[in-house]
Amino acid sequence: YIFPILKTTVLFKKHRFIEEKNNRVNQNRSLGQIVHYGQVIQIKHVKSSEYLKVSHSEPAPKNIDDLKVFLGNENESALFKILPKLRVHAEGDKVRIGDKIMLTNLVTKHTIHVETFLDENKKPVVEVNGSSSEGSGLKIMPYQSFSFLFPKDDYLNGGDIVRFHAKERDGYLMAGKIDSSSPDNICLYISIGDEGASSSNALFRIENLPNFNGEVIDWKNSQIRLKHVGTNLYVSSTTKSLTFSTIENVYYDVVFTSNFSDPSTIFQLKPLYSGVEGPISKNSIFCLQSKLNSCYLRMAHVNDQEGDFRRNKINNDKTHKVIQTNQSFKIYLCSKYSEEDSLVLSLVQEQEIHNINFVKSTRPTLKNYADHFIFSKHGSSSSTLLPSTTESAFVQKVLTDLIFFVQKIPETRFHEDPLKMNESVDSVRQLIVLQQGVIDIVLNIFRIPFEGTNGNKPLLVLDQILLPENSSFHYSFQLCYRLIKQVIKDNHICEQYLSQKPEIIKFMQHQLGYKLQAAETLMELFEDNRYLLENLDDSIIETFFSLITKVGKFSRYMVN
After folding, report:
1. Which candidate, 108, 113, 133, 104, places its Cα nearest to that of 40?
2. Do 149 and 142 contact (CB within 8 A), yes or no?
3. Cα atoms in the Cβ-side hemisphere of radius 13 Å centred on 366
4. Which residue(s) pair with 172 in the sheet?
5. Is the Cβ–Cβ distance between 127 and 108 less than 8 Å?
6. CA angle, residues 339, 345, 348, in degrees to nearest 5
7. How far apart are CA 229 and CA 352, in angstroms?
8. pTM, 2 dp
9. pLDDT in tens, 293-313
10. Phi and psi dihedrals of 518, rounded to 5?
C-alpha cells in the first residue's frame, strides 16, 4: 500500500508545480492590461510579496461573526471579484483611479469589510475582516504606475532598500545609538570592514519625491528621502552651520528626525562625474547632497586637521566597540565634496528584507506580553495583570518561530520541541534578532515579573514558578532563555552585547535551579568570552564560586 501512496504524492507535486508555473505565466501576461468590474483579481502586498486572503473557517479576532482576513501564499482563497460600490458603475466598466470598489472573495463569498472597535483603553482599533452582510467601499489610490521604459530590476526605484558602500573608507554607512541610555539619540557612522555588509543597521529605504510612487529614479530628478529601516527615522541636516565653518567651507551636522515633511530630509543623488544622464542604475557611484543647504555628505577622520572634529560619543559607547578610535570618522555636510566621500549603491536581497520584516513583526507581540507584567501604579491585584493562558500560548508560538528562525529550521520540522533542538545557527539572523531589539524585550519578559515595579511586590515568586498554575509562564521563560542561548551561540558581537549587562547576568544566576535553562544559557555566555572580564563585578564572581563549592555537579562551570 505504500507504493501507490508515494506515487500519488509525486503526481500531486508535479501537478502543483505545473499549476504554479501556469499562474505565473498568466500573471505576466495580464501585466499592463486594463481591469474591468466583474473580473477576478488577486491583491498582492508589495512589502511582503504575499496575497490578501480570507479564511474558510477561522473567525476574525474582534468580530467573531465575520471571517479572518490575512496575508499568505496564493491559492483559491486569494481570488477576489472586483465590484463597484456605487451604482454609477456596472460590471464590464473600466476600473479607474479614485473609484470606490468592493472585493468579494470567490470561495467564501465574503466581502472585505473595515470595522472600528474600542480597546481596553478606549482607543479606536481598526480591523479588516470578511463580512457576509456588507462590504466597505475601498478607494483606489495610485502607488506606482506600470512602466515599459526601463527594466526595474536594473535600476534604482523609489521604495528600494539599499546599503551605501563607502569603498574609499572601507566601510558602510550605518546608523546607531550614541548613548544607550537615550534610545532616540541616533547618529551616522562608518562601519569598519565588512560589518555593514550583514548588519540591518546599514539598511536605508529610498523614498523618491514627490509621491514615493516607486518609479525608476532619474539623475535629473533624483530628489529622495533616506529612511533608516531599523529606527524608521529620516536622515536630515541641521539648519544652523557648525562653529568651525569658514567662508570657503561651510559645515552642517547630520541628524535624524521622524518628520518626513521636514525640508531638511530632502537629499539629491549627484553623479560623481558630470555628463551622466538617464535612470540611475544599481551599483552607481554618487555623492549625497542636501537640498536645504546644497552641502555634500563628507567623512573625515576624528583627528583630521580640516576642522574641529571632536570624538563622537559613539566611540565611547561599548555597544559599538567595533569602531576603533584611530579609524573613526566624523560624518557631516560640507559645501565642497571629495571623490573619497563617494558612495556605491548596494541592493539588499529580498530574502534579507523578508527576514528583517519577520523579526520586526514579532516585537509588538512580545512587548505587549512584557508590559502585562508591569505592576500597576494604582495597586491593582496581580491576577488581573498576569497574561492569560491563551496569550502565553501565542507568545510561546512567536518565541518558537524565532528559535527556528535563528537555526534555519525548515517547516517540515516545526513540530519538534524547540527546547531540544541544537542545530547550527545563522550569524546574519542572530544579528537581525539583536539589532531589531528583540533580545531586550525577551530579557524583560523573564526579569520584570520577578522584580516588580513602582515599589510593589513582584507578580511572580521564583520559588513558586514550578507549580502547575504557573506552568504556562515557566514554559515561556524557558523559551526566552533558549532564544538568548541561540542568539549568542558562536557570535562574539551578540556575546559582547549581553556581557555589558551585568545586572542581567546576576539575575540569570539567581534563577539557576528552577529548570528555566538558565544554566545552559550562562554556560554559552561564559565559554571563551573575554568581554566578560571588562564587566564582571564581585557579586557575579562570588555567585560563580558558590556554585562550584556548594553544588559539586556544577563543576563544569570551572571548565568554562
Report:
1. 104
2. no
3. 29
4. 165
5. no
6. 155
7. 12
8. 0.59
9. 888 888 765 444 343 333 333
10. -70, -35
